[in-house]
Amino acid sequence: MNSFLNMLNANFKQFLRDKTALFFTLAFPVLFIIMFGLVFSGTDKINYDVALVNEDDSQISQGIVQAFSQVSIFSVQDNPRDDSLQLLTDGKLKAVIILPEGLGQAALSGQTTEVQVYYDGSQTSVNQIILPVVKEILQSINREITQTPVLFEISEETIQTKDMSMMSFFIPGVLAMSIMFLGIYSAMPLIQQREKKILKRLGASPISRSTIIFSQVVLRLGLAVLQTVIIIVIGQLMFGVEILGNWWLLLGLVMLGTLSFISLGFLVASLAKTEEGAMPIVQLIQFPMMFLSGIFFPLEYMPDFMRPVVNALPLTYLGDAFRQVMVDGAPAFPLGVDLLVVTGWLVVCMAISVRFFRWE
Predict the structure, then answer these.
(1) Of 283, 282, 281, which Cα lies nearest the Cα of 30?
(2) Which of 229, 272, 285, 306 could hold 278 in an S-S bridge, CB 3.0 to 4.6 Å?
(3) Residue ranges of the ABC transmembrane type-2 domain (predicted)?
Protein backbone atom coordinates (compact mmCIF):
# COMPACT_ATOMS: atom_id res chain seq x y z
CA MET A 1 0.00 0.00 0.00
CA ASN A 2 2.82 2.40 0.84
CA SER A 3 4.48 1.63 -2.48
CA PHE A 4 1.25 2.46 -4.29
CA LEU A 5 0.85 5.75 -2.42
CA ASN A 6 4.46 6.66 -3.10
CA MET A 7 4.02 5.96 -6.83
CA LEU A 8 0.74 7.86 -6.85
CA ASN A 9 2.43 10.83 -5.20
CA ALA A 10 5.38 10.67 -7.61
CA ASN A 11 3.07 10.52 -10.64
CA PHE A 12 1.02 13.41 -9.30
CA LYS A 13 4.12 15.56 -8.86
CA GLN A 14 5.29 14.64 -12.35
CA PHE A 15 1.89 15.65 -13.72
CA LEU A 16 2.14 18.99 -11.93
CA ARG A 17 5.56 19.58 -13.49
CA ASP A 18 4.14 18.97 -16.98
CA LYS A 19 2.80 22.47 -17.58
CA THR A 20 1.33 21.61 -20.98
CA ALA A 21 -0.65 18.63 -19.69
CA LEU A 22 -1.74 20.69 -16.69
CA PHE A 23 -2.98 23.47 -18.93
CA PHE A 24 -4.96 21.26 -21.32
CA THR A 25 -6.40 19.20 -18.45
CA LEU A 26 -7.52 21.98 -16.13
CA ALA A 27 -7.18 25.45 -17.61
CA PHE A 28 -8.12 24.87 -21.24
CA PRO A 29 -11.70 23.63 -20.60
CA VAL A 30 -12.34 26.66 -18.41
CA LEU A 31 -10.89 29.06 -20.99
CA PHE A 32 -12.88 27.30 -23.73
CA ILE A 33 -16.15 27.85 -21.87
CA ILE A 34 -15.30 31.46 -21.03
CA MET A 35 -14.28 32.31 -24.61
CA PHE A 36 -17.41 30.79 -26.13
CA GLY A 37 -19.52 32.47 -23.50
CA LEU A 38 -18.01 35.86 -24.29
CA VAL A 39 -18.40 35.35 -28.04
CA PHE A 40 -22.03 34.31 -27.91
CA SER A 41 -23.15 36.50 -25.02
CA GLY A 42 -24.05 39.16 -27.57
CA THR A 43 -25.91 36.94 -30.04
CA ASP A 44 -29.32 37.76 -28.55
CA LYS A 45 -28.71 41.41 -29.49
CA ILE A 46 -27.89 40.83 -33.15
CA ASN A 47 -29.51 43.28 -35.54
CA TYR A 48 -30.09 42.48 -39.19
CA ASP A 49 -29.18 45.32 -41.52
CA VAL A 50 -31.97 45.82 -44.04
CA ALA A 51 -32.78 48.61 -46.46
CA LEU A 52 -36.32 49.90 -46.87
CA VAL A 53 -36.68 51.82 -50.14
CA ASN A 54 -39.80 53.98 -50.01
CA GLU A 55 -40.61 55.05 -53.58
CA ASP A 56 -44.20 56.02 -52.76
CA ASP A 57 -43.95 58.51 -49.86
CA SER A 58 -47.65 58.23 -49.03
CA GLN A 59 -49.16 58.16 -45.55
CA ILE A 60 -49.54 54.38 -45.75
CA SER A 61 -45.97 53.81 -46.93
CA GLN A 62 -44.73 56.09 -44.14
CA GLY A 63 -46.66 53.92 -41.70
CA ILE A 64 -44.92 50.84 -43.08
CA VAL A 65 -41.53 52.53 -42.67
CA GLN A 66 -42.38 53.43 -39.07
CA ALA A 67 -43.49 49.85 -38.35
CA PHE A 68 -40.19 48.47 -39.65
CA SER A 69 -38.16 50.97 -37.62
CA GLN A 70 -39.82 49.70 -34.42
CA VAL A 71 -38.74 46.08 -34.97
CA SER A 72 -35.85 45.47 -32.56
CA ILE A 73 -34.02 42.93 -34.74
CA PHE A 74 -33.86 45.29 -37.73
CA SER A 75 -31.40 48.09 -38.31
CA VAL A 76 -33.23 49.91 -41.10
CA GLN A 77 -31.38 51.97 -43.70
CA ASP A 78 -33.00 54.45 -46.06
CA ASN A 79 -31.02 54.36 -49.30
CA PRO A 80 -31.90 54.65 -53.00
CA ARG A 81 -32.77 51.38 -54.75
CA ASP A 82 -29.50 51.00 -56.68
CA ASP A 83 -27.32 51.79 -53.66
CA SER A 84 -29.27 49.36 -51.50
CA LEU A 85 -29.00 46.53 -54.02
CA GLN A 86 -25.26 47.14 -54.34
CA LEU A 87 -24.86 46.97 -50.55
CA LEU A 88 -26.82 43.71 -50.59
CA THR A 89 -24.57 42.33 -53.34
CA ASP A 90 -21.51 43.31 -51.30
CA GLY A 91 -22.85 41.36 -48.32
CA LYS A 92 -23.40 44.49 -46.21
CA LEU A 93 -27.19 44.08 -46.04
CA LYS A 94 -29.35 41.05 -45.36
CA ALA A 95 -32.36 42.18 -47.36
CA VAL A 96 -33.77 45.06 -49.43
CA ILE A 97 -37.50 45.83 -49.31
CA ILE A 98 -39.00 48.00 -52.05
CA LEU A 99 -42.23 49.94 -51.45
CA PRO A 100 -43.21 50.86 -55.03
CA GLU A 101 -44.67 54.13 -56.21
CA GLY A 102 -48.46 54.14 -56.05
CA LEU A 103 -48.64 51.73 -53.10
CA GLY A 104 -50.71 54.09 -50.93
CA GLN A 105 -53.22 54.96 -53.65
CA ALA A 106 -53.61 51.29 -54.59
CA ALA A 107 -54.24 50.34 -50.95
CA LEU A 108 -56.95 52.99 -50.58
CA SER A 109 -58.54 51.65 -53.77
CA GLY A 110 -58.47 48.08 -52.46
CA GLN A 111 -55.96 46.95 -55.06
CA THR A 112 -53.09 44.56 -54.41
CA THR A 113 -49.56 45.96 -54.60
CA GLU A 114 -46.45 43.86 -55.12
CA VAL A 115 -43.75 44.55 -52.52
CA GLN A 116 -40.36 43.30 -53.70
CA VAL A 117 -37.97 41.73 -51.19
CA TYR A 118 -34.43 41.08 -52.44
CA TYR A 119 -32.20 38.72 -50.47
CA ASP A 120 -29.57 36.02 -50.70
CA GLY A 121 -31.49 32.74 -50.68
CA SER A 122 -28.54 30.81 -49.25
CA GLN A 123 -28.78 32.72 -45.96
CA THR A 124 -30.95 30.78 -43.52
CA SER A 125 -31.38 33.85 -41.29
CA VAL A 126 -33.26 35.56 -44.12
CA ASN A 127 -35.52 32.59 -44.81
CA GLN A 128 -36.24 31.77 -41.18
CA ILE A 129 -36.34 35.18 -39.52
CA ILE A 130 -36.42 38.20 -41.80
CA LEU A 131 -39.00 37.11 -44.39
CA PRO A 132 -41.61 36.00 -41.81
CA VAL A 133 -41.21 39.31 -39.95
CA VAL A 134 -41.65 41.29 -43.19
CA LYS A 135 -44.79 39.31 -44.02
CA GLU A 136 -46.21 39.80 -40.53
CA ILE A 137 -45.66 43.58 -40.63
CA LEU A 138 -47.40 43.91 -43.99
CA GLN A 139 -50.26 41.65 -42.89
CA SER A 140 -50.73 43.70 -39.71
CA ILE A 141 -50.97 46.94 -41.69
CA ASN A 142 -53.29 45.20 -44.14
CA ARG A 143 -55.63 44.26 -41.26
CA GLU A 144 -55.61 47.83 -39.93
CA ILE A 145 -56.77 49.14 -43.30
CA THR A 146 -59.21 46.40 -44.25
CA GLN A 147 -59.83 42.72 -43.63
CA THR A 148 -60.20 42.01 -47.33
CA PRO A 149 -58.82 42.02 -49.92
CA VAL A 150 -55.08 41.33 -49.59
CA LEU A 151 -53.41 44.69 -50.20
CA PHE A 152 -49.74 43.67 -50.14
CA GLU A 153 -48.21 40.70 -51.89
CA ILE A 154 -44.54 39.88 -51.37
CA SER A 155 -42.43 39.15 -54.43
CA GLU A 156 -39.25 37.37 -53.34
CA GLU A 157 -36.16 38.04 -55.47
CA THR A 158 -32.92 36.17 -54.75
CA ILE A 159 -29.65 37.63 -55.99
CA GLN A 160 -26.03 36.49 -55.88
CA THR A 161 -24.20 38.22 -53.05
CA LYS A 162 -20.73 38.17 -51.59
CA ASP A 163 -22.13 36.62 -48.42
CA MET A 164 -20.39 33.27 -48.25
CA SER A 165 -21.03 29.72 -47.22
CA MET A 166 -19.84 28.50 -43.84
CA MET A 167 -16.85 26.68 -45.36
CA SER A 168 -15.88 29.72 -47.44
CA PHE A 169 -15.84 31.68 -44.19
CA PHE A 170 -14.07 28.88 -42.32
CA ILE A 171 -11.18 28.03 -44.69
CA PRO A 172 -9.47 31.49 -44.59
CA GLY A 173 -9.85 31.43 -40.81
CA VAL A 174 -8.15 28.04 -40.59
CA LEU A 175 -5.28 29.33 -42.72
CA ALA A 176 -4.87 32.38 -40.48
CA MET A 177 -4.92 30.17 -37.38
CA SER A 178 -2.35 27.78 -38.87
CA ILE A 179 0.01 30.64 -39.65
CA MET A 180 -0.43 31.96 -36.12
CA PHE A 181 0.56 28.58 -34.65
CA LEU A 182 3.48 28.21 -37.04
CA GLY A 183 4.83 31.66 -36.22
CA ILE A 184 4.34 31.71 -32.46
CA TYR A 185 5.87 28.27 -31.98
CA SER A 186 9.07 29.49 -33.62
CA ALA A 187 9.93 30.48 -30.04
CA MET A 188 10.32 26.86 -28.94
CA PRO A 189 13.37 25.72 -30.96
CA LEU A 190 15.21 28.93 -30.07
CA ILE A 191 14.53 28.46 -26.36
CA GLN A 192 15.50 24.78 -26.53
CA GLN A 193 18.75 25.61 -28.30
CA ARG A 194 19.49 28.34 -25.77
CA GLU A 195 18.84 26.01 -22.81
CA LYS A 196 21.15 23.37 -24.30
CA LYS A 197 23.87 26.00 -24.98
CA ILE A 198 23.59 25.32 -28.71
CA LEU A 199 23.00 28.99 -29.52
CA LYS A 200 26.05 29.93 -27.47
CA ARG A 201 28.25 27.46 -29.36
CA LEU A 202 26.80 28.51 -32.72
CA GLY A 203 27.45 32.14 -31.80
CA ALA A 204 31.11 31.32 -31.27
CA SER A 205 31.34 29.49 -34.60
CA PRO A 206 31.95 31.05 -38.05
CA ILE A 207 28.18 30.98 -38.62
CA SER A 208 26.77 34.46 -38.13
CA ARG A 209 23.83 35.04 -35.82
CA SER A 210 21.82 36.51 -38.67
CA THR A 211 22.28 33.24 -40.57
CA ILE A 212 20.89 31.29 -37.61
CA ILE A 213 17.80 33.49 -37.42
CA PHE A 214 17.37 33.68 -41.18
CA SER A 215 17.36 29.88 -41.48
CA GLN A 216 14.52 29.69 -38.94
CA VAL A 217 12.55 32.33 -40.84
CA VAL A 218 13.02 30.73 -44.27
CA LEU A 219 12.04 27.30 -42.90
CA ARG A 220 8.79 28.63 -41.51
CA LEU A 221 7.99 30.66 -44.63
CA GLY A 222 8.35 27.46 -46.65
CA LEU A 223 6.12 25.58 -44.20
CA ALA A 224 3.56 28.39 -44.42
CA VAL A 225 3.37 28.03 -48.20
CA LEU A 226 2.96 24.26 -47.80
CA GLN A 227 0.21 24.81 -45.23
CA THR A 228 -1.54 27.20 -47.58
CA VAL A 229 -1.48 24.75 -50.48
CA ILE A 230 -2.81 21.89 -48.33
CA ILE A 231 -5.63 23.96 -46.84
CA ILE A 232 -6.70 25.38 -50.21
CA VAL A 233 -6.63 21.97 -51.92
CA ILE A 234 -8.73 20.40 -49.16
CA GLY A 235 -11.14 23.33 -49.27
CA GLN A 236 -11.56 23.08 -53.03
CA LEU A 237 -11.73 19.30 -53.44
CA MET A 238 -13.78 18.38 -50.37
CA PHE A 239 -15.96 21.44 -49.82
CA GLY A 240 -16.05 23.27 -53.16
CA VAL A 241 -14.52 26.48 -51.80
CA GLU A 242 -13.54 28.62 -54.79
CA ILE A 243 -10.52 30.91 -54.49
CA LEU A 244 -11.55 34.13 -56.22
CA GLY A 245 -8.69 36.51 -55.45
CA ASN A 246 -5.25 37.22 -56.84
CA TRP A 247 -2.87 34.34 -56.11
CA TRP A 248 0.21 36.60 -55.91
CA LEU A 249 -1.55 38.87 -53.44
CA LEU A 250 -2.49 35.82 -51.39
CA LEU A 251 1.14 34.62 -51.42
CA GLY A 252 2.35 38.03 -50.29
CA LEU A 253 -0.23 38.06 -47.51
CA VAL A 254 0.87 34.59 -46.37
CA MET A 255 4.47 35.82 -46.24
CA LEU A 256 3.54 38.97 -44.32
CA GLY A 257 1.34 37.12 -41.84
CA THR A 258 3.98 34.46 -41.23
CA LEU A 259 6.69 37.06 -40.65
CA SER A 260 4.44 38.95 -38.26
CA PHE A 261 3.74 35.89 -36.12
CA ILE A 262 7.36 34.72 -36.31
CA SER A 263 8.30 38.10 -34.83
CA LEU A 264 5.73 37.48 -32.10
CA GLY A 265 7.34 34.07 -31.50
CA PHE A 266 10.76 35.70 -31.25
CA LEU A 267 9.29 38.14 -28.74
CA VAL A 268 8.13 35.19 -26.62
CA ALA A 269 11.64 33.72 -26.86
CA SER A 270 13.01 37.06 -25.67
CA LEU A 271 10.73 37.15 -22.62
CA ALA A 272 10.86 33.50 -21.53
CA LYS A 273 14.01 31.96 -20.07
CA THR A 274 12.89 28.33 -20.34
CA GLU A 275 10.60 26.21 -22.49
CA GLU A 276 8.32 25.65 -19.51
CA GLY A 277 8.12 29.38 -19.00
CA ALA A 278 7.34 29.98 -22.67
CA MET A 279 4.34 27.63 -22.90
CA PRO A 280 2.01 29.67 -20.65
CA ILE A 281 2.92 32.81 -22.59
CA VAL A 282 2.20 31.10 -25.91
CA GLN A 283 -1.13 29.77 -24.63
CA LEU A 284 -2.04 33.14 -23.18
CA ILE A 285 -1.50 34.66 -26.63
CA GLN A 286 -2.98 32.05 -28.94
CA PHE A 287 -6.22 31.01 -27.25
CA PRO A 288 -7.78 34.48 -26.94
CA MET A 289 -6.88 35.10 -30.57
CA MET A 290 -8.48 31.83 -31.68
CA PHE A 291 -11.85 32.75 -30.23
CA LEU A 292 -11.93 36.55 -30.30
CA SER A 293 -10.41 37.40 -33.69
CA GLY A 294 -13.38 36.45 -35.87
CA ILE A 295 -11.61 33.62 -37.70
CA PHE A 296 -14.38 31.13 -36.81
CA PHE A 297 -17.30 33.41 -35.93
CA PRO A 298 -18.41 36.65 -37.61
CA LEU A 299 -17.30 39.73 -35.71
CA GLU A 300 -20.94 40.81 -35.45
CA TYR A 301 -21.37 38.06 -32.84
CA MET A 302 -18.91 39.77 -30.53
CA PRO A 303 -20.45 41.81 -27.70
CA ASP A 304 -19.62 45.49 -27.76
CA PHE A 305 -17.51 45.40 -24.60
CA MET A 306 -15.13 42.91 -26.29
CA ARG A 307 -14.55 45.07 -29.39
CA PRO A 308 -11.45 46.89 -28.05
CA VAL A 309 -9.78 43.52 -27.46
CA VAL A 310 -10.90 42.17 -30.84
CA ASN A 311 -9.59 45.25 -32.64
CA ALA A 312 -6.18 44.93 -30.96
CA LEU A 313 -5.47 41.37 -32.11
CA PRO A 314 -3.29 40.85 -35.20
CA LEU A 315 -5.17 37.67 -36.11
CA THR A 316 -8.37 39.72 -36.49
CA TYR A 317 -6.80 41.62 -39.37
CA LEU A 318 -4.97 38.67 -40.92
CA GLY A 319 -8.15 36.59 -40.99
CA ASP A 320 -10.13 39.48 -42.47
CA ALA A 321 -7.48 40.04 -45.14
CA PHE A 322 -7.43 36.34 -46.07
CA ARG A 323 -11.23 36.33 -46.34
CA GLN A 324 -11.18 39.33 -48.67
CA VAL A 325 -8.37 38.02 -50.86
CA MET A 326 -9.33 34.33 -50.97
CA VAL A 327 -13.13 34.34 -51.27
CA ASP A 328 -13.96 38.01 -51.91
CA GLY A 329 -15.71 38.20 -48.55
CA ALA A 330 -17.32 41.35 -47.20
CA PRO A 331 -14.57 43.21 -45.32
CA ALA A 332 -14.66 44.00 -41.63
CA PHE A 333 -11.88 46.53 -42.31
CA PRO A 334 -10.38 47.98 -45.51
CA LEU A 335 -7.65 45.72 -46.86
CA GLY A 336 -5.11 48.52 -46.48
CA VAL A 337 -5.90 48.74 -42.76
CA ASP A 338 -5.46 44.96 -42.41
CA LEU A 339 -2.05 45.11 -44.07
CA LEU A 340 -0.98 48.14 -42.04
CA VAL A 341 -1.90 46.56 -38.69
CA VAL A 342 -0.23 43.21 -39.48
CA THR A 343 2.89 45.07 -40.63
CA GLY A 344 2.80 47.19 -37.49
CA TRP A 345 2.81 44.09 -35.30
CA LEU A 346 5.75 42.74 -37.30
CA VAL A 347 7.81 45.91 -36.83
CA VAL A 348 7.01 46.39 -33.13
CA CYS A 349 7.55 42.75 -32.11
CA MET A 350 10.77 42.49 -34.09
CA ALA A 351 12.13 45.73 -32.59
CA ILE A 352 11.45 44.50 -29.05
CA SER A 353 12.93 41.08 -29.84
CA VAL A 354 16.15 42.59 -31.18
CA ARG A 355 16.46 44.66 -28.01
CA PHE A 356 15.83 41.91 -25.45
CA PHE A 357 16.71 38.55 -27.06
CA ARG A 358 19.46 36.67 -25.22
CA TRP A 359 21.74 34.15 -26.91
CA GLU A 360 22.78 32.47 -23.68
Answers:
(1) 283
(2) 272
(3) 135-360
